[in-house]
Amino acid sequence: MEHTDDLLPWTIPHPIHVDLARSFGDSGMRDLLRELDKTLIGVETVNSLIRQIAALLLVDRARRR
């Protein structure tokens, strides 16, 4: 069986370091999410969903860079 790693489209030739914590801090999401926590008191399901979406957007942004 031949080695096919070089044919995979998602293979990165050199590892890339992505600091998601820094990206999160730089994005301003932390302040926005804190404000939503204060505003949407008692709506934990909505807060959780917003945090999940924010995390996905952060990863998507990192991938595009």
Question: Could you walk me through the main structural features you see in this protein, from its secondary elements to its overall organization?
Answer:
By secondary structure, the chain is an all-alpha fold. The chain has one domain (18-64). The protein is built from three helices and no strands. The protein has helices at 20-27, 29-39, 44-64. It is elongated. 0% of the residues are buried.
Quaternary arrangement of the chains shown? single chain
Major pleated sheet: none
Uncertain stretches:
none
- CA-atom Rg in angstroms: 17 Å
Q: What is the domain total for the residues?
A: 1
Order of helices and strands: HHH
Number of strands: 0
Q: How many angstroms separate the termini?
A: 35 Å
* Share in helix: 55-70%
How would you sum up the global shape?
elongated
Approximate strand percentage: under 5%
**Distinct helical segment count:** 3
Structural class: mainly alpha
- The overall pLDDT, averaged over residues, is 80
